[in-house]
Amino acid sequence: MDGNRFDDRPADLVLLGPPGAGKGTQARILQERFGIVQLSTGDLLREAVAQGTPAGLAAKDVMAAGGLVSDEIVIAILRDRLAAPDCAAGVIFDGFPRTAVQAEALDALLADAGRGIVAAVSLEVDDAAMVARITGRSTCAGCGEGYHDDFKRPAVAGVCDRCGGTAFKRRADDTAETVSARLAAYHAQTAPLIDHYAGQGLLRRVDAMAPIDEVTAGMAAVVETALA
Ligand code: AP5
Questions:
Q1: 98 pLDDT exceeds 60?
Q2: Is 19 in the pocket of ligand 1 (CB under 6 A)?
Q3: Where are the strands (E) in 105-198, listed by range?
Q4: The pTM is what?
Q5: By alpha-carbon position, which residue is closest to atom 34 of ligand 1?
Q6: For the chain, give me the number of helices (H) and strands (E)?
Q7: C-alpha 29: how far from its chain's center?
Q8: In what order do the strands lie in the sheet with 117-124?
Q9: Strands 168-169 and 137-140, how do they pair?
Q10: pLDDT band at 3 (very low <50, low <70, confident <90, very high)
């Protein structure tokens, strides 16, 4: 991917929302629709854990318990990924920043590159619905397409719509107990960033309790307006 649909300026967007709000689901759709790269720190950390890198070894137990990995580790991983050529046209930051320190680091990294966030979208949901969303989630082992036992089933049971794969996986931290810890971390450390972006005039709120395609429509309107 060598350019976004808007071409004349980098399209850097932040997605905020608790676990299960639909950040990954929407980021993947927007990536396809607008040519803006999805950058998920959760995915990068899971990759580091799977590869057994020093960052992965340090992150593994924290993630399993539903806590936040240290700012130092996450910012280093983010910085490396952001330097890749495919990120030059713009990035959907999915799950980053999650603390005030990370938000400041992101502002500085983008400013150094002569770019900046064009909108921070808060996916607004009820916590009570998030446990069901997360414990019902699965992912195609082949292409990473996301599914849900009730809300997003493949057209043919057991077969991925996108790649035809038949192996699906579930995340180790998608248990009801861990979700509670992840929600608590979100409210204590990440929700305050809503004010950070509101103060910069960048905050946009989208009702993420609606069906997936309606949420996408709301997100697409934000992107179109921000980059018009
Ligand atoms: P991460 O991977 O970022 O997980 P998360 O924030 O907990 O978010 P999820 O991936 O669980 O949810 P989502 O909002 O993407 O929802 P999804 O689209 O899948 O982080 C994991 C861990 O890594 C953290 O706990 C932490 O330890 C560490 N970490 C990561 N980043 C970090 C950082 N910056 N700093 C420190 N630590 C960090 O949707 C969920 C399900 O619901 C799916 O099945 C989907 O199909 C379904 N669904 C989606 N939208 C809808 C809808 N509108 N209606 C019905 N169902 C829907």
A1: yes
A2: yes
A3: 117-124, 137-140, 146-148, 168-169
A4: 0.94
A5: 96
A6: 9, 8
A7: 12
A8: 37-40, 91-94, 12-16, 117-124, 203-207
A9: antiparallel
A10: low
